[in-house]
Every structure is written in structure tokens, then in C-alpha cells.
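note to self: dont lose this again. the chain is below, predicted strucutre after it. 420 aa total, dont forget to put it in the shared folder this time
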Amino acid sequence: MKDALGYWRIGTLFRCRLRRFWTEQWKAWRTALDWTVWVYFVLPLLWIGGGTYVDWWHHPPDWLTRLPMVSGERLTLAVVFFGRLRTFAEEADVLFLLPRRRWMSGILTRGMAYTALSLLVMSALVYVLMLPFFVAVHHFPAAQLLVMLAYTWIGAGIGAVSRNLIEARFGGLRKWFVKTATMLMLAAAYLAPLVLLGGTPMDLLAPIIAGAAVLFGLLRAKLRARDTFESDVRQEQLARLASTQLLLRNVIERRPRIKLSRPAVLRRSNRIFKRFSGDTILAEMIVKAFIRRLPLVRMWFFFTLASTAAVALSPAILQPFIAVAFMLLLSTWVISHWRGMIAEPFFRQFRWQDAVLRGSAGRVRFWLVAPAAAFFGLFGGLSAYGPVGMLEIVPGVLIWLLLSKFITSSMLLRMDREGE
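---
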């Protein structure tokens, strides 16, 4: 037993996990890259791609010579944005290794070294692929390319560590905002020295030193962090399954993910209509279901935005007719959503009367199209008659109120009668 325990060291455990990771990746890719794929796809692609690459060295195409320098420098942002910090943390570490800070710090330090080596290889590969642009077209010296490679390598390390910390410290919508803001700031800080100072190798020396200092501070904060273990385990699981998900993305049918978090709007089940009649309650449930589904709201928003622009750009004499056409078109889509909700098993278990169905359809149709009618009148009147024309928002909503009352509901009840 003592001999078995003495065999395991920090370096031995890290090498074992690293070897297992690459064995899993090789087994996953070996199932897809059989000899037919190599003969018919991989080898011809390498042959054609290699020939094109060599030809660009000697005879750069016209579009490559006309490409500005800024475009080539922006392509290196791919390494900065997609780098991932590997910690090689596992779920069982919470029982045995997490209480031992020296072991966790040792594995994390080796994971950082592995990440640095991986990012260096990725950065070098990007610059090798872009050598015809930098050397054959713009005649960059070797010293300049090495300095740019070091600069990109440090930027990729900053991006990888910062994303790891953000994944652990934030959640939900706030994580998305913080990650987006951080990536925008990192992109600006990365591109500004390349565009403004990247004339000679010495121009990037100060940004490299500053970036190395920032990277050292982030690595130190990561080593001292005590609340990132669960996030590290989740990110490691995603890293191990990345190849499998890529190979099986079109093979396995994805089941809808169950979200247990509350929606962004209407987070509480409060009433939105005052009446307690059957048609009002049914309409309220369908309207809430519509508003709480982000894809439906997004589609409604873009349709209303495009329709409002079409109404505002039309002649004043045609605006009412075009607005009515868009109202009816949006009403058809809303009623299709109403039909889908009524066909759900939860709603079909109730014996709704025809008057209740007709009343709920009218309420859903009116309240989901009325905001669009208000936009049509507001911006259509503003474009045709100036600020005074904004008062057309009132007749716009009234026109839709009259249309909604006169639209027949016979087609809406046909589906319910067929199901009985």
C-alpha cells in the first residue's frame, strides 16, 4: 500500500490525466477518420491546400495583395478569442485533492504550462498560414514576425485566463455582459498597438511587457482563487467532449434543455388582466407564454421593425393600406401561435366553450398586434407629417381594434371541433 501511494506524485498524476485525455481524443477521431476518409477527403484536401499555399508564395493573388494590413492583423484575434485554460480538474478531486492545496496548485500550474504551450502552437500555426500575406506581400522581416507572435501569444493567454475566471465568478445574463465587455476591451487593447505602433520590433516591446504583467496578475489570481473548482470541472468536461460533440452534432437528436431559472420578463405569476372570465384567463396564459419565449419575441420584434420601416418609407396616401396589410399578416402569425397553444395537452384537457375560445383568440390577437399598430401610426405619421403626425398612433390602434373585432373566428374553432 505504501509503495502504491508513493508512486503517485503531482507530475505523475498530471501526466496520467494528460495521456488519458489525448487517448480519448484519438479514439473519438479514429472512429471518423477511417481509410476511406483519408483517401477521398483528407489527402486530396492536403494536396490541394498545400499546392495553393506554395503557389501564393510565388504568385500572390490580386485579392491578397489588395487586402489591407489591418485585415491580416485582425485574423490573429481568433487565437485570442478561442483559447481555453486547461486545469485538468476532475469531480473526484473534491474528496482527495481539494483539501491539499499543494497538489491542486501543482496540477493547475502544469495545466497553465500546457495551455501556454498549446496557445503557442496555435499562434504559430496561424502565423505560418498567413506567411504569404506578411512575407510575400508586405515583406515583413523575421524579427517582426517573432515579436508579433510573442504579442499574440501573450494576448491569447490573457483571454484564456480571463474567460476562465469570468465563467467561475458570474452567471446568467450578467456573465454574458461581462464576457462580452471583456472580450471587446481585450480586442481593442490587442489591436491598438498593432495598428498604431507595429512598425518595428521595438514598437511592440512596451505592449508585450505590459501584457506579460497583466497575464502574471491573472495567473496569480487564478492560483489564489478558492471558488473556481466547480467551474473548472465543468469546463474540463466540455473540453473532453468537444471532439465527440463535433463529430456527432448531426447524428444524435438533441433533446430540449430544461431550464429551471425564471424567465427574464413576467418573472412572477401575477395577473395582467383584471377580469376573471374564462376567455380572459385563457388569453392571459397564452400571452404570458408568448412573452416568456425569447425566440417568439425576437421574431415579433424584427417583423415589427421591418414593417414599421416599410410603412414609414411609403407615400402618405398608401401608409394606411400597407399598415393594415402588415397588421393582418402579423395577426395570422399570432393566431398560429394561439392554435399551437390550444393544441397542447394541458389546454386540451379542458372543455372550452366556443365563446371562450373566440373571446380568448380576440384578446390574444389584439394585444399582441396592438403595439405593432401603434408603431405603424407613430413612425408613419412622423415621416409623413412631422412631429404632429405622431398623433396618428391613436387612429392606428383604433383601426386595429375595429379589424380585430370584425375578423371572423370560425377558422379558429375548426381545429377544436375536429379534435373532438
